[in-house]
Amino acid sequence: MGQGIVPSLELFEHVQQHYRYFQAMLPGHTGEVLWEAAQTALSKNIEQALTTIYAEKPSPAIPWTFIAQYLAGAFLTLLRWWLKAEMPYPPERMEMIFQQLALTGMRSTVEGERVSQYISL
């Protein structure tokens, strides 16, 4: 189910295959613009995937747009760390880490488990 929402393994593998290109995109203003564009494109794709996958379920308490922004941001932050650290783990391990950290919480939210009952502000 996770690969239908965020193609994380495929993206980690792609970045690994083109490591030098992506490494060059990390620093500077141009890199920031490219990462912002990646955030926008990825969040739109994630939102489309979520609305398709969960079309038969009631809308979650948190709008799909927020969930998509969160997942895209979490993925890209992890991806940037991986690049800066010179890829200390294989793509499969990174994909598993992303699945466990980001998608587990998203699934709980979508399936109706309210986090607010556990936190007091």
Binned, the helix content reads over 70%
Number of distinct helices: 6
Overall morphology: globular
**End-to-end Cα distance:** 33 Å
On the 0 to 100 scale, the average pLDDT is 86
- Uncertain residue segments: 115-121
Structural class: mainly alpha
| Rg for CA atoms | 15 Å
State the major sheet: none
Write up this protein.
The protein is mostly helical and 121 residues long. It has one domain. 73% of the residues lie in helices and 0% in strands. The protein contains six helices and no strands. The chain has helices at 2-5, 8-17, 19-25, 28-53, 64-84, 91-110. Helix 2 (8-17) packs antiparallel against helix 6 (91-110), helix 4 (28-53) crosses helix 5 (64-84) and helix 5 packs antiparallel against helix 6. The protein is globular.
Key descriptive features of the protein:
121 residues, mainly alpha, 6 helices, 73% helix, globular, disordered C terminus
Structural topology:
Elements: H1 2-5, H2 8-17, H3 19-25, H4 28-53, H5 64-84, H6 91-110
Helix pairs in contact: 2-6, 4-5, 5-6
Short description:
The protein is mainly alpha-helical and 121 residues long. It contains six helices and no strands. Mean pLDDT is 86; it is low at 115-121.
